[in-house]
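Handout, page 2. Input:
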Amino acid sequence: MRAAMSNRSMSNRSRSNRSSGTLSVALNLAGETALIVGGGEVALRRATTLSAAGLRLRVVALDVNAALSELTGDIQRRPFETADLDGARLVVACTSSMALNDEVTRLARLRGLLVNHAGAAEAGTLRFPALIERGGLSVAISTGTELPMLAQALREKLGAALPESLPMNDWSAQRDAALQLAGSERAAALDHLRVQIRAGVGL
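Output:
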């Protein structure tokens, strides 16, 4: 009995330590085209995020939230067509039809495009994390599971612990200056900066 319990415990630990299968990265896609299939509230949230990252937006939907027109002039009020994927680097499938979202995601994956399925994130290749932004600092939170409520709660918790502002430009300038030094002077300057940064974030 003890051996069986031990085996189950090891199995549970193995499952809990297993990779979520996702890769957390920061992509520079400024200037690339993002296709958003859907025109509702989810489309607006995704469009706001993508526009802030410098992507060009193309929206295809029968009904379009009026606020989307403030983010892009490329709005096609019609059903999705396969040709809409042409020239896109990233796709968001966020219509009210799960079947259509499935089809858009399938076609995008066949072309090797980054694609987010709003109703079933595991079906796509791209997920949008919960973000905390403080000036030039961005902290992304992803649970690796379908628990956006947890990611949002953690964003609130961590956001409350972070300073409202950080002297990012000053710290970057100090780092650049330190790297121009040699030997012990460089090490001392970087150590001094490390102390400042740790104090700045409350450590």
